[in-house]
Amino acid sequence: MTTDSWLVVGLGNPGLGYAANRHNVGEMVVAELGIRMSAKFKRHKANAMVAEVRLGIGGPKLILAGTNTFMNVSGGPVANLLKFYSLDPSRLIVVHDELDIPFDTVRLKFGGGHGGHNGIRDIVSAVGTGDFIRVRVGIGRPPGRQDAADFVLKDFSSTERTSLPSLISDAADAVEAIAVDGLTAAQQRFHSPDPAS
Fold first, then answer.
1. What is the distance between the alpha carbons of residues 41 and 48, in angstroms, rounded to a whole number?
2. Top-level CATH class of 5-190?
3. Where does 4-132 show beta strands of DSSP type E?
4. pLDDT of residue 192
5. Ranges of each domain in the chain
6. Known binding site for tRNA: residues?
7. For helices 183-190 and 158-181, what crossing angle results, to 10°?
8. Is 23 known to be catalytic?
9. FRET label pair with 71: which of 96, 114, 125, 160, CA 20 to 30 Å apart?
């Protein structure tokens, strides 16, 4: 089994006022991974909260992180963490909300553009490449004519909150699957119509 390290960053905005926003679902996923592994997050000089854990005995090391900056300036802390841990951007997994994917859906990909996501845009700019893994957590499009920027900064609806724990759990499972089995195997599992099959 591999003992390679992965930097897993959950995107979101700092502060209790943002904690339950759709935009913070990436942070929720990293928090879930931390709970699973009884991780203790500590303040890091890269302006982030970081916990180092290992997946099972002899499994890969996960460096779980959430930046202390606002979403749109996530890049600096991420670039600094990669440098601190001497990791190539290909060892970076960014977990973030995605408007273009239906709610309650998880999609995994390597590389590509930022798709209008300002957090991803800033990371690509700071790291100097888009060649990293993204765990895209679907939040769907805003209803009616609601502005997308307003939509992502609202809390999940009461209906959405019913299935939110399973969505967060699925995304956390996806991160673990990438670290243990690789991206292709994880995509085959999570992109199938029925992940249980």
1. 9
2. alpha beta
3. 5-10, 42-44, 48-54, 61-67, 92-98, 106-110
4. 72
5. 5-190
6. 18, 70, 72, 118
7. 150
8. yes
9. 160
